[in-house]
Target: Glutathione-dependent formaldehyde dehydrogenase
Amino acid sequence: MRAVTYHGTGDMRVDTVPDPTIQHPRDAILKVSSTAICGSDLHIYDGFMPEMKTGDVIGHEFMGEIVETGPEVKGLSVGDRVVIPFNVTCGRCHFCERQLFSMCDNSNPDGEKLEKLYGQAGAGLFGYSHLFGGYDGGQAEYVRVPFADTGHLKVPSHISDDSLLFLTDIFPTGWQAALNADVTEGSTVAVWGAGPVGLFAIKSALLLGAETVYAIDTVPERLRLAEQAGAVAINSSEQKPYEALMEKTNERLPECVIDAVGLEAHGAGVLDTVYDKAKTVTFQETDRPHALREAILCTRKAGTVSLAGVYAGMVDKFPIGAAFGKALSFKMGQTHVLKHIPDLLRRIEEGQIDPSFLITHRGTLEDAPDMYKTFRDKTDDCIKCVMTP
Ligand code: NAD
Ligand code: ZN
Model:
């Protein structure tokens, strides 16, 4: 089959690789109908993700049709149309039972590498490095889905792939970001990063009843889409977010703050690369301030900072004084996708939201190398790339 494969920093290719096979009785094989490139894939593309191997199949946002099931797979049949969450989850451990799916105990066979760094390891991930199980991803014609009996959401045939695909990751990620920020009726919210995750955080905050949502970015097309989604745009290359937010909120500042940027903003890498890079970046000196530091300084006293953007390793110069001094709360982590998607599917079915609004680029798997570059460089007004194998 054809699949998008990793060949080093900035080098994604389309290769012919062996078709996946059932390896465990709870596996299923999915024929991919649609797959997307995520901002998290850019951490791989940018060389921030260690333990990648040449030839690894990338991709964790995919859906399609079940074409084969292992003997222990119950409740899922050949021909079923499903969305697959980006986290690989066993569905039966202490954490899965509590719907803390991204913390699954049993789905990351490489977990001990992360335990050395973090003390404990979370779930495996599709198409994402040998720190997270080294599972082949879904930017491919077919993909093996481990624990497929519990790790899927069946979706109705009358809704298009475009409207369902983002249930795999970025819609629930934006949703969890808003919940983690304690957004409720009447909240004032600010979202750093108007990329796909930021745009879903904006939509989610408004669905949860936020009164005003500010969107901070520098890319005009993304800010335009944020405005269309109902946010007030702040272009941080034209206006300092702190000054803009003080003025717009009558000096109260937003109490719910979301970082939908992550590693990209400050150029600090992960794990072994982070120390060197972090040393060369001071928040005051960069012309584009570190999003998280800026977000903390812009949060109202007693407010909540929610990190949806991905961080890894050590990042220095965290303004702990401001966080303590203003009695801030922090929530973060990878999204517990399965926890949120039944509710989000219902909202799509009811017409509360159509997640396809941010698709700007389409192609086949063969277009992946070009699409990665366009999405990375944010050229051609690119917001989200979807491929049909
Ligand atoms: P993206 O790269 O397309 O978007 C990031 C946006 O942030 C861009 O529009 C960029 O211009 C903007 N930005 C960069 N630096 C900024 C700064 N200093 N101030 C304001 N804006 C700034 O990526 P995406 O797909 O939207 O993903 C965003 C983040 O969310 C990534 O780190 C990704 O890994 C992470 N993510 C997390 C989860 C999770 O489970 N928590 C899931 C999916 C994605
Ligand atoms: Zn993703």
In short: Residues 2-169+335-387 form a domain with the Quinone Oxidoreductase; Chain A, domain 1 fold (CATH 3.90.180.10). The chain has two domains: 2-169+335-387, 170-332. The chain is about 25% helix and 20% strand. The first helix runs from residue 39 to 45.
